[in-house]
Amino acid sequence: MNKTLIDQIGNTPIVKSIALNTNPNVSLYFKLEGNNPGGSVKDRAAYNMIKSALDSKRIDANSKLIEATSGNTGIALAMICSVFKLNIELVMPETATKERVQTMRAYGAKVTLHPDGIEGARDYATHKVENEGYFSFNQFANNDNWKAHYKTTGPEIWRDTEGTITHFVSSMGTTGTIMGTSTFLKEQNADIKIVGVQPTDGSKIPGIRKWPLEYLPKIFDASKVDQTIEVSKDEAVEMTRRLAKDEGILAGMSSGGATAAALKLVKDLKSGIVVCIICDRGDRYLSSDLFE
């Protein structure tokens, strides 16, 4: 009975699609990362990055921490920093939903909103690291990001599908989830297909990115992704709403995008066990027009 909040990160449920998947020869499963205590898949990476930095004495209680985030990583970092009594400044695009900003501040983090999107937020954080003595976890280049999923997400999926998974589908943002999960699953069975999800040109989907070359996450290794499926913002929005109405799963737009891609994949398969990451909960988007 000595479990702490940290012990509740991971071991999220996998549930079978009961409505959206209409291919009788394929089973589609959703891994519900919104069941993490901070409400998203990013709890895993945030904890692993913070714990590793503390253990290696790169940071301590006096460190000035800063991180650029589009939302979920910031919430996860704020939550875990509150547990470890660390101070952190989180830099977000000023378009971030009110719930995300308020949640980070509730955990005690300082939140700075930047007018130039996530790229501007990243540049702001980099400047503070280089000029003002701040420490950044730099999720885009931090191997402890993807290793969190190598240690937890991948093994859970392998265990819960009893080694029968044939395809893994994940949105690609910082790419930590897909890199770590791919690395583990491919070690178990090299034939498992790893499918990454990107936005179509011109589509802005929070949590799914097609990065300009100079901002491409350093942890990304294209050889670990077998196939990329593109989805539009309209497809992501429609599928997010259908997830809630048809499957009872309230999630964010990146999860809708991943589900739209998974259904495109499933439609053409003759057989298979497909697992799709539902990366967060939808309640942090209720002030937006996502569910209107």
TrEMBL record:
Its EC number is 2.5.1.47. Keywords: Amino-acid biosynthesis, Cysteine biosynthesis, Pyridoxal phosphate, Transferase. Its cofactor is pyridoxal 5'-phosphate. It holds the Pfam family PALP. InterPro entries: Cys_synth, Cys_Synth/Cystath_Beta-Synth, P-phosphate_BS, TrpB-like_PALP, TrpB-like_PALP_sf. CDD domains: CBS_like. Pathway: Amino-acid biosynthesis; L-cysteine biosynthesis; L-cysteine from L-serine: step 2/2. It catalyses: O-acetyl-L-serine + hydrogen sulfide = L-cysteine + acetate. It is an enzyme of class 2 (transferase). Signal peptide: none annotated. One of its GO terms (molecular function) is cysteine synthase activity. Residues 7-280 form the Tryptophan synthase beta chain-like PALP domain. PANTHER family: CYSTATHIONINE BETA-SYNTHASE. Belongs to the cysteine synthase/cystathionine beta-synthase family. This is cysteine synthase. It comes from Winogradskyella marina.
